Amino acid sequence: MACFVEKYNFTDPREEKALQNFKSAAERLGHRFDFMFRENLSEIPKYDSVFIRATTDPLFTAYVVSKTAWELGLKVIDDPWSIKICGNKIHQYSLFKEHNVPHIPTIFLNKDKFHHRQLLRVFENFGKPVVVKAPYTSFSRYVEKVACETSFRDVAKRYFRKSDVLAVQKFMPTTFDWRVGVLGGEVLYVCKYMIPKGRWKHGAKLRGKPTVIWGRTVTMKKENAPTALKELALQACKVIGNGLYGVDIKEFNGDYVVVEVNDNPSIYAGYEDLRNKDLYGKIIEYLAD
Amino acid sequence: MGNGFNVSSTSENSCSGPRTSRVLYVSVPFHFILVRSVNINVQLVLNMTVAIANFQSSGVTCVLVVSNIDLTADVSIMKPSTFLESSTKGFTLNINNDYRYLKAGYYVSLHAEVLGNLVIPSSENIIDAHRTPILLLRASKAGISTLPYVVTGSVKQITSELEFPVVVFPVNPFMHNGFEVAKNRSALYRAMKSLSMNYKFAVCAQPLRGDMISFKSIFGKCELEEDLRTISQKIYDLFKIPICKLHVQRVEGKVYLCGLQPLKKEELLPSDAKLISKEISVISKQGETFIV
Predict the structure, then answer these.
(1) Any CB–CB contact under 8 A between A136 and chain B?
(2) ipTM for the complex shown
(3) Is A164 touching B (CB cutoff 8 A)?
(4) Which domain holds residue A61?
(5) Among residues A47, A64, B127, B143, which one has the fewest Cβ atoms lying within 10 Å of its Cβ?
(6) Which phi and psi angles does B256 have, rounded to 5°?
């Protein structure tokens, strides 16, 4: 087994610990588990399966790894289609719309049709503020809250540089986001990503400072999580694929709505795995299957 | 079109008859579907067969052309921004000078797929064709000649595995015309720094053994030598990117694929627009390979 990582995966001791846990779980189950860096991509054909831990996006090396492995007939997490759908939130939300998965009310903004009247309509429909999301968002980046036309235009201008379409969503403040880990159509772990006090997203910046503060992670046994929550998570993953996902769900006025589905969900030792210790073994077994 | 479809017409004067009165019967040999979609599951193949049947029953005029280029074709053409807000069904032909990921050309194909339309090109092919290592891998699997390549972020690895001169492509799609030829180590360092956007992304290096040739390919056609015409057609058959620029190397009389990039709008000449229009009319009259 090869585990594709980049140098930054080892900067956080909790993430490094989790990677070591994967390695020992694999070795316990009788598999060889090597870390593969950008420099060793030519070794992909030597392995039976590839597990990607580096950040995925169709623009990153991780996609090249995933697609190469798949073309060579290897088992791979995350598979190229999951990366393609989860790496582009526009794609993801249009699938949710098509398959009637309850999600945060979302509309798409087109670069060519971005004008005053359109903005007024957005505010009319969703009220103020609204959340502007670039399709390539991850780790709470490239998601911003805007309350007036000026800041809306300002944020949109920055995001339009890379992508010709953006998503705009209704602002739904909650004290935490549910995070449901799903593997091969089954719930793997459930936790709550708490939102730092006075902020509105899990990873928030302090005003004027470059450091990001993260909310606490509260883990629970998956058996104790609400059934409706788990069902919604599985329903959302079903339209995407059969791999490993982290589903973000908001509980708003008693209803569950999907915020987004992420491929390559972060797994930190002592966080996601706290009450579900078997998740390492399950992922390794899935890869070996 | 030599693509495995037998197209026959009910009307006697099949070539000149008015389009509205003709009914097309497209018969698709089943083995052909299987061969082209070995990696796609059976459910998907069935869906495609259904989609082809729909195409037959609705006649010939259901080709939906979405284009950001001014064309003279006698079919109606929709602007990408209009199409993205509509939910028009039908076989979609996405014509754009720039199909890069996250650009309008990509979103048109994506939108068509979400609507359940068959579309040329598919969003998956768009991503793959613009990522040089995957382009080369899939091309060589399909029997198109390619040279060995190295995907890496380190100069040392390139120099240890390849001999100078080398040709380096970015594995990041923000550049229009991004390949560079490096004849020595210091040139390679410079090329590396700019193409990897200061080592943020990887690059794809190939040996340079002959001359680099870059040319426009429109529906797989180009008005050049025989060997270039052949490779251009083969790449179109595989990825179905209607408009692109191909980079190839000719080594001792043999042509090798090196890369594929989008065209700038100003690179499209009026004669190219004419050729595109002609191809669109041919496709909307005859149909096209639907399995994409």
Answers:
(1) yes
(2) 0.90
(3) yes
(4) 2-84
(5) B143
(6) -120, 135
Contact (CB, 8 A) for B243 and B276: yes
The pLDDT tens digits of the residues spanning A198-238 come to 888 888 777 777 777 888 899 999 999 999 999 999 999 99
Question: In chain A, which residues have their Cβ closer than 8 Å to the Cβ of B86?
Answer: none
Per-residue pLDDT of B49-95, as tens digits, reads 334 434 443 443 468 899 988 887 677 889 999 999 998 888 899 99
User: Do the domain assignments include residue A93?
Assistant: no
Of B84, B171, B202, Cβ closest to residue A110: B84
Choice between A270 and B49, residue whose per-residue pLDDT is larger? A270
With respect to residue A91, please indicate whether it lies within any of the assigned structural domains: no
State CA B161 to chain mean position distance. Answer: 30
- On chain A, the residues whose CB falls within 8 A of the CB of B127 are 58, 63, 84
Residues of B in contact with A84 (CB under 8 A): 123-124, 127
Q: Which of B39, B94, B126, B127 to mutate to test the interface with A (most CBs of A within 10 A)?
A: B127
Read off the pTM. Answer: 0.84
Q: Is residue A95 part of a domain?
A: no
For residue A282, being part of any structural domain is answered with yes
Nearest to A68 among B134, B201, B202 (CB): B134
| Average pLDDT over all residues of chain B | 78
Residues A152 and A180 in one domain: no
Residue A114 sits in the same domain as residue A16: no
Residues A248 and A273 in one domain: yes
User: Contact B133/A63, CB-based, under 8 Å?
Assistant: no
Tell me if A101 sits within 8 A of A107, measured CB to CB.
no
Number of structural domains in chain A: 3
**Following DSSP, what letter does each residue of B91-160 receive, concatenated?**
-EEEE-S---TTSHHHHHHHHHHHTT--EES-HHHHHHHHSHHHHHHHHHHTT--B---EEES-HHHHHH
pLDDT in tens, A124-164: 999 989 999 999 988 888 999 999 999 999 999 999 998 99
Task: Tell me: do A156 and A116 sit in the same domain.
Answer: yes
Q: Does A256 touch chain B (CB under 8 A)?
A: no
Q: In what order do the strands lie in the sheet with B77-78?
A: B77-78, B64-67, B92-95, B119-120
